[in-house]
Amino acid sequence: MSRRGLRPRDVAYCALITAHSMAGGPDAALAVRRRMAREGAAASVHVYNALLAACDRAGRYEQALELLQAMKLEVRRSSCPHARGGAGRAPALEGPASAAHPAPVRCGTQH
């Protein structure tokens, strides 16, 4: 994919994380997150949910808590004051839209 200049979407990373997790490979599932960071891909809420599920399946609860902290930091770092979902709400992260997960608010302002 990357040789053709294409970047995987959020759903591809989630599928890969879930496949590793279901096959009993929590380390491989967590390695996907590191790969995403190297490639400059931001982890969405969906990716974090898949990672948290992988930790749960493996009984790695301390690691799940660390992921939650990383998620909070990443949201703060990547938040844009123009992309907030409304007063008191956290900024929306990239990911597929559905009734349960509305489309993210994107900032059109150049910073």
Helical fraction equals: 40-55%
**Coarse morphology:** globular
- How large, in whole angstroms, is the Cα Rg? 15 Å
Distance between the ends: 30 Å
What is the typical, i.e. mean, pLDDT?
Answer: 75
Largest sheet features: none
Q: How much strand content do the residues show?
A: under 5%
What's the count of strands? Answer: 0
Helix-strand topology string: HHHH
Number of helices, where a helix is a run of at least 4 consecutive DSSP H or I residues: 4
Which features does this protein show?
single chain; mainly alpha
Tell me the layout of helices and strands.
Blueprint (H helix, E strand, L loop, with lengths): L9 H13 L3 H14 L5 H14 L2 H18 L33
Helix pairs in contact: 1-2, 1-3, 2-3, 3-4
Provide an overview of this structure.
The chain has helices spanning 10-22, 26-39, 45-58, 61-78. It is mainly alpha-helical and 111 residues long. It has a domain at 2-77. The longest helix has 18 residues, at 61-78. 19% of the residues are buried.
What's this entry about, in short?
With 111 residues, this protein is mostly helical. It is 53% helix and 0% strand.
